[in-house]
Amino acid sequence: MKKVDKKVADQYFKIRTTMIIIFLAIGFSVSFGVAAFADVIHETGATIMGMPAHYYMGAQGAVVTFVILLFLNAIISDRVDKKFGIDDKQNEQISGSGSGH
Amino acid sequence: MDQQSLVSLILILITFALYIGISVYNRAKVTSDFYVASRGIPPFWNGMAIGGDWMSAASFIGMAGTVMVLGYDGLAYIMGWTGGYLLLTFLLAPQLRKYGRFTVPEFIGDRFDSNPARLIAAIATIIISFTYIIGQLSGSGVVIGRLLNLPASTGVMIGVVVIAIYASLGGMKGVTWTQVAQYMILITAYIIPIVFLSLQISGNPLPWLTYGNVVNELGALDRELGLSEYFAPFEEGNKAQFLALLFTLMVGTAALPHVIVRFYTVTTMKAARWSGAWALLFIALLYLSAPAYAAFSRFVIMTEVVGSPIDNLPGWTEAWLNTGLLEIADSNGDGVLQWEELVIHQDIVVMATPEIANLGMFVVGLVAAGAMAAALSTAGGLLITISSSFAHDIYYRLMRPDATDGRRLQAGRIAIVLSTIAAGLVALDPPGVITQIIAWAFALAGGTFFPVLFLGVWWKRMNKQGAMAGMLGGLSVTLGYIFLSMAGITFFGIQDTGAGVFGVTANLILVIVVSLMTPPPEQRLQDEVTDLRYPEQMTYKDGQVWMNDNSDK
Hints:
The structure holds two protein chains of two kinds.
Chain A: E1 2-4, H1 6-36, H2 38-44, E2 47-48, E3 51-52, H3 53-83, H4 88-98
Antiparallel strand pairs in A: 2-3
Helix pairs in contact in A: 1-3
Chain B: H1 3-25, H2 31-36, H3 43-54, H4 57-70, H5 75-99, H6 104-111, H7 115-148, H8 152-202, H9 207-225, H10 239-255, H11 257-260, H12 269-305, H13 316-323, E1 326-328, E2 342-344, H14 349-356, H15 361-399, H16 405-428, H17 434-458, H18 464-486, H19 500-517, H20 523-531, E3 538-541, E4 544-547
Antiparallel strand pairs in B: 1-2, 3-4
Helix pairs in contact in B: 1-8, 1-15, 3-8, 3-12, 4-12, 4-15, 5-10, 5-12, 5-17, 6-7, 7-8, 7-15, 7-16, 7-17, 7-18, 8-12, 8-15, 8-16, 9-12, 10-17, 12-14, 14-15, 15-16, 17-18, 17-19, 18-19
């Protein structure tokens, strides 16, 4: 066991929390945000991929964004863990021995 | 039995044999096999199993039809049922995984150090999962009944027997691998028809790229008929109801116990994040296809079926007219079928479209096998959840803490058999419309659990009084609003399916206010919550964070 500087530990938590807030904000704006203005967008007649823009966002745009966000989160989080010296093998070992109750 | 029924039946039997074979091969030997598959499932496969677990009869059979009938307003289901995975993967799954328990009630009981809270959570879990499973059993009954020309109730009985066998044999380990197989079957069955439809209509085999034009043409056809355009927003409800439904489905998705428990089957927080990402990718394949399915089948019906003489309709109409799910009336008496004279029940769209478009017996049979896979995989996951709430949380943690591994496994298996029989009996005569019951299950899950789990892992000051007040208050407000709106009293035009908005709000306020008015939880519990901020290798202890680098070994 090695003590982690409080600043480093706090920084880890802050990076992870900021990521979550940004990702959720993007996720909510492509779903709730677009739906809240669907009637306005409909009237402008804008289209994406050949269909009305608000319809496209509901049927494909929002879902594709969600998938991209989750993969970005998984990839970036792994990088952050690595930067802070976290070894996934160790994690597996700890979680395997610690939770067998 | 006609040739079509025979082909469909053979396909369904082959897939059933596959599921039972997998669960026999992966038989559970110890309790952790049974509940969490020994926590050894790799994220990619776990993601696929979550996909199979998640996509139920409602997604497979009902969703495309809902979008076809409601147009833009049906898209709340597409966004809500996928967006929930954002909340789940960002806010709950990794933290719950690090906390390291078997079930949702066990997390709540241990996090707040309260057996009454554990009991409330266990009972709520059973209620939510039981509500959900009734829909699955009715769905499988409809498919089997339609194929074999049997009453739907006989179909339900056949489905019940198959599910009980493989869930009680294999436990979570068996269920995980059968769900992987079921996902592959259901996604193939869903995508093949729309690929053929896309080829027929536009000559391009990628439906996701081609149906945009079809959507526009549908709008033009609607304008000609003087109807509101297919893609016009909020024609079937108002904006508040759309947003409330979207919110309810999203939050409910993140708080459904049978989905959360899947994140306990992986090894680490990192694996939980990757599981969430893979799961949503696999789920999105079906959810991106549903609006294409809806657009193509509406297009085929509007251009090829409508306008044909009413006494010379295609062969497929007869069987569906007999089920009462399709109605045709020549109301203006001109002998020709008009769009307005056709009433299509939304649950038959996915099943009937391959027949309408003449895709052949094999494709029609495959869709039937896919629908069964969707219903059975979800029912299997739900049964494990009900059984663990009873056998683990109530029997082992509350009644008999000294029970042996063998006794607990046995209790789990008995709970599965009993709840399958009970749910089967209710499903023989379902208490309401299937999609509506399922929407209630989401409202109840979100209203009871979401704020409690969310603040439970993020806010260390939250205590047991807050948790109990939140769960009970959220549950009763959600139930109360469902009953009120069924009786015709609504606020802001929000209907019963959007009840989660009120439940979650009440729950959140109660948790915060009651927690702050009562003493804080003891330091040990607060430290456990702080510990969830960091990966497994970092531990929070005595106000310090420690890194486990194996130096003391």
